[in-house]
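Hi support team,

I've been running sequence recovery on a batch of backbones for a student project. Most finish fine, but this one hangs at about 90% for roughly twenty minutes before it completes. I'm not sure whether the input is malformed or the queue is just slow. I've pasted the structure tokens below so you can try to reproduce it. Let me know if you need the job ID as well.

Thanks,
M.K.
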């Protein structure tokens, strides 16, 4: 399922997605090398330069094979969103099309993938005053007062929002304060038409294989220095960018609420839970073609249009 026929547009964005630790990076690199194009990173945490181990960001060696965009380009202190990602990618793609017919986008951040493939509703800009006020309240009082405010201002969105997702809750409150209307009223859900073809592929693995890959990746992260990386940003633990699996468990270890062995096993468990959420999201998308990593590396995108 694509937005345009190949007879209308010669350009194709190939999205390589799938659950965490499924092997997306290697498959995307092999595909991009064969297609002669660069890679757009669609991982919402790999964009932050301070936490490459925790986010399993493409290594320097991998980035030397194929140029990656949106890897280590922001600081954890910077504000960044799926909406900004959509704007940035749409501005970047013409430079890809000037050099060839293909672009590869790789990542498992569901909102970031949808932002480019489906589009995000236009939202008003948030004034520095509103953003600063919400940020200060969050830092001082925690998430609960913002949840209470969202329930009062927009009960419809409150009913469906992930109440553990600090960034999403805070943004909805910002919108409500800025506009004086509900966040729900501004969400149209209309799919934007794109002037290029979109082919989505995901790496399909059975659960035992995927979970084994996750467990081994966490062990590797620990060997690579995850504890030191987490320690280096511990003083900034309140930032939303650090509200992620790997960091939260290491911070609990530093706080003394769990030992290191428990933190390691909790990272594995929470990563497996996240992978299940990703799979649930992906299986709702009928446009995704489930392939092996080898099939993706050898893919002729036109065959799926």
């Amino acid at each position: 399922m694509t937005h345009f026929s190949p007879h209308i547009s010669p350009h194709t964005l190939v999205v390589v997605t799938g659950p965490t630790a499924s092997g997306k990076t290697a498959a995307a690199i092999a595909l991009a090398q064969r297609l002669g194009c660069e890679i757009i990173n669609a991982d919402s945490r790999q964009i932050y330069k301070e936490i490459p181990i925790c986010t399993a960001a493409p290594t320097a060696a991998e980035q030397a094979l194929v140029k990656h965009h949106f890897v280590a380009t922001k600081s954890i202190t910077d504000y960044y969103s799926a909406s900004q990602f959509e704007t940035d990618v749409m501005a970047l793609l013409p430079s890809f099309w000037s050099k060839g017919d293909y672009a590869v986008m790789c990542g498992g951040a569901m909102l970031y993938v949808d932002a480019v493939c489906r589009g995000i509703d236009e939202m008003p800009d948030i004034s520095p005053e509103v953003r600063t006020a919400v940020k200060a309240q969050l830092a001082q009082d925690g998430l609960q007062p913002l949840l209470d405010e969202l329930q009062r201002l927009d009960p419809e969105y409150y009913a469906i929002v992930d109440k553990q997702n600090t960034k999403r809750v805070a943004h909805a409150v910002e919108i409500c304060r800025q506009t004086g209307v509900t966040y729900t009223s501004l969400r149209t859900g209309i799919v934007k038409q794109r002037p290029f073809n979109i082919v989505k592929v995901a790496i399909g693995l059975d659960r035992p294989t995927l979970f084994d890959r996750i467990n081994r990746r966490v062990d590797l992260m620990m060997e690579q220095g995850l504890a030191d990386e987490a320690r280096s940003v511990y003083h900034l633990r309140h930032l939303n960018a650090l509200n992620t699996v790997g960091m939260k468990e290491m911070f609990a270890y530093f706080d003394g609420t769990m030992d290191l062995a428990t933190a390691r096993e909790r990272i594995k468990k929470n990563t497996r839970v996240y992978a299940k959420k990703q799979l649930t999201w992906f299986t709702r998308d009928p446009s995704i073609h489930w392939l092996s990593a080898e099939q993706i590396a050898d893919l002729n995108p036109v065959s799926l249009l």
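--
Follow-up from support: It reproduced on our side and the slowdown came from queue contention, not your input. The radius of gyration is 20 Å. No action needed from you.
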